[in-house]
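Entry:
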Amino acid sequence: MNKKNEIGIGIEKIDEISFYAKPLPMPIEQIHLGENLFLGLGFSFNIDLKNEKFVFDTLVKYNVEHIEEPFLQLENKIVFNIKNLTGVIIVNQEDQMKMQDDFLITLTGVAIGTIRGMLAASTKGTQWAKFPLPILNPKEVIQKMNSN
């Protein structure tokens, strides 16, 4: 690939949108991730082709079994500067966007790692520190998103 068509990814800024954590409703010894504590992870993004910006929002929340309201929730926003954004995102005649999987996988990996670090920093010294965001394969996350 020549320099003119090269894709470059940089981070312009990272913002915490919201964070809250409530005390667990039962002793921590009775809480087990995947058994009675469940993790939710969501993503949304906004693409500005003209200014070569890709805004990636990530939401993580933890719910306790049989209780609808999350007990822990963190949302962040990452603004990426993408050199040659039109090289990885194609807009068809109906104004629908299609992006290269490898590009989205890369940004998803950065988003997951970023929110994991923010979650660890926000829960340090609390009972929630025992439940870090697990290691997730961004390719599998994207495949699951695309299948829904």
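Strands lie at 8-21, 37-48, 53-64, 72-83, 89-91, 97-99.
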